Amino acid sequence: MDFGPYLLQLFSGLSRAMVLFLLSAGLSLIFGVMNILNFAHATLWLIAGYTSYSIFTYLGEQLGPSPWLLLPAIVGATTLMMAVGYAIERFLIRRMYDRELPEQLLLTFALVLIGGDVIKLIWGTENRRISLGIEPVEMLDTLMNPYHFIIIGTGIAVGVGLWLFLHRTRFGKIVRAAVYSRSMVSALGIPIPTIYAAVFSLGVGLAALAGGVFLPLLPMALGVDHDIIVQCFAVVVIGGFGSMLGTFVAALIVGVVYAFGILFWPDGALAMIFMIVVAVLIWRPWGLFGTEMRF
Amino acid sequence: MGLYRRYGISAPAAALLLVSFILVPLAPGQFWTHVSTEILILGLFAMSFNLLYGYMGQISFGHAAFFGVGAYATAMLFTALKAPDGSIGMLAFFASLAVGPPVAALAALVVGVFCVRLTGIYFAMLTLAFGELLYYIVFSWYSFTKGDDGIQGLLPPALLQDPVNFYYLTLAIVVAALAVMWRITESPFGYVLRTLRDNQRRAAFLGINVRLHMLLAFVIAGFFAGLAGALWGPFSRSVSPGLLGWAESGIAVFMTLIGGAGAFIGPIVGSVIYTLLQAVVKMYTVYWPLTIGLVILLIVLFAPGGVLGILERRLRPAAPARAERAIAVEETRP
Fold it and tell me: For residue B325, is pLDDT > 80?
């Protein structure tokens, strides 16, 4: 039996899973801490991808093309988007904390529409992609893009880093405490608004990182954010809101199911993912790894 | 003013709207008649959404699924009944219109059984997930639904191909539907829904079967969304899977919020503003999403309760505005 194509699908699924994980981790963190479901998360991810593209191309023109230029591009885009995330929290989302859920959803929904057109205004309607010029390597008679390993490595490294940050640092512990009880954290004299702004900025930063890292594999195109955000919701729902481990496992499930779904039932891959979501929401609405606390 | 005192801003707004809607075809050219037909159909869709949101207090992000299912049911029967040359008889046309709403209600029953077990964000997520599931099923089941191609050639009978005639048919159906919805929202059942919105736990203490009432509301909302969908096919002459997607659900949410979820007629007012704005803005620029995005942003930040909410507060500053009461959904989770 020829395992080549399956291995290829597995690795492309794992790469996809890592991107979904980076996005969903931020989404889940933001929801866990401030109860805001950010519809615009994938739009910010897409803007970060376009920004990385622009920095990468600009540096390439100035210094001569090199795959290493992706590093400063990602760092630049991530920094910029963290600032944008901070501004969005500070000037828009902060006004919404004591509002009803639907209004909060609508605010971020409006940001999706605005963000999409901002991309159109700045970068036009053409798809943007970059080529790193990395030679594919041969594995089990199949040509494989070694960049998959970089993405998977990055995803795991960020996942571990995030876990260490949340469990081993003072700030991380405050964030986790805020997930349990905002009022208690506030009562202990910790400035909640600062925590909110930092968490939102961090979440957007994770998304921006994902945008840059994924750039060599997937062309940035208008409207991709609409597909990605519902898949991120799928991941967060399957894993359970506020659970990092759950988000990681759910991202693996969604990424791999999608990759193999495409192989066997090309148009129905996403239908399969939403069947899983529906099943999880019916059976365990708080997700595979979530707790009933928030339910 | 007696009517106003009893029914708030909805009574004068509805009267004003009805007169303007009747007079629209007097405007020169067919453009405004066409836009007004769209206003009515999407307005009915938004009204059906507001049964769940404004009255029952749950936000559905998959409501377009029932709009789309209704549209597809009508389109499929339409295609089956029409003659080889594409024409369709009056009876067959109305038969295909009639099949949309019950099929959509049936879909809402199946989906609703699961959704009404949840509330708040989980209700929103499950409706979104079901909506996307139905979207992808329609999208990928090519042999049954024609997939991405959609279904074309839904040309109504000769008499109704005239935009003015089709417009008055739509107006009659929508007004009748709204009358039924008004009756429902003012019935004891309608008040049970308001109770569920304000405090589900207390409603349960009172002996109200919470899930059953939510399910009923969900099916009714699905039925009227399906009716709007049934009209949409012959209006636009085609249906496509996009009608079921979450962006389409978003339109109902936008309209409701712009007009005001707290007033019965709010979603229609929202549809008038949204659809007119879209028609005008699209004449000048391709940046329609940016425009509507900014409008929504401003409304959410500065005018919660929508246009009717603002009006009502102006007219009746002393009394608590209906709009504000309607969006004050009690947090039922600990």
Answer: no
- Name which of A127-131, B135-139, B191-195, B279-283 the model is least confident about: A127-131
Question: Is the pLDDT score of B333 beyond 50?
Answer: no
Looking at the 3D structure of chain B, how many domains does it have? 1
Interface residue A95 vs chain B (CB under 8 A): yes
Q: Which residue range forms the structural domain that includes residue A89?
A: 11-126+141-222
Q: Each residue of B23-32: pLDDT tens digit?
A: 878 878 888 8
> What SS3 class is residue B96?
helix
Q: Are B55 and B185 in contact (CB under 8 A)?
A: yes
Q: Does B287 touch chain A (CB under 8 A)?
A: yes
Q: Please, how many CA atoms are within 13 Å of residue B119, restricted to the half-sphere of its CB?
A: 19
Q: Is residue B333 part of a domain?
A: no
A96 to chain B: closest CA residue: B301
Q: Is residue A287 part of a domain?
A: no
How big is the A-B interface in CB pairs under 8 Å? 126
Query: Which of the two residues, B5 and B42, has the higher pLDDT score?
Result: B42
The token pair at B186 is 């003012």
Q: Report d(CA A75, CA A52) in Å as an integer.
A: 8
Q: Is B121's CB within 8 Å of A101's CB? A: yes
Q: Is the predicted pLDDT of residue A130 greater than 80, yes or no?
A: no
Within 13 Å of residue B163, how many CA atoms lie on the same side as its CB? 16
Provide the residue range defining the domain that includes B185. Answer: 2-326
Q: How many Å apart are CA B288 and CA B95, to the nearest integer?
A: 37
Is the minimum CB–CB distance between A187 and chain B shorter than 8 Å? Answer: no
Q: How far off is chain A from B130, nearest CA to CA, in Å?
A: 7
Find chain B residues with C-beta within 8 A of A268's C-beta. 136-137, 140
Identify whether A191 is part of a domain: yes
ipTM value > 0.90? no
Of A271, A281, A294, the CB nearest to B136: A271
**Count of other CB atoms within 10 angstroms of residue B224:** 28
Per the domain annotation, does A186 fall within a domain? yes
Looking at residue B17, its pLDDT comes to 86
Q: How far is CA A168 from the centre of its chain?
A: 23
What are A217-275's pLDDT values in tens digits?
A: 877 888 888 888 988 988 988 988 777 888 999 999 999 898 888 888 777 788 888 88
The answer to whether A23 and A42 are in contact (CB under 8 A) is: yes
pLDDT of the residue at A206? 93
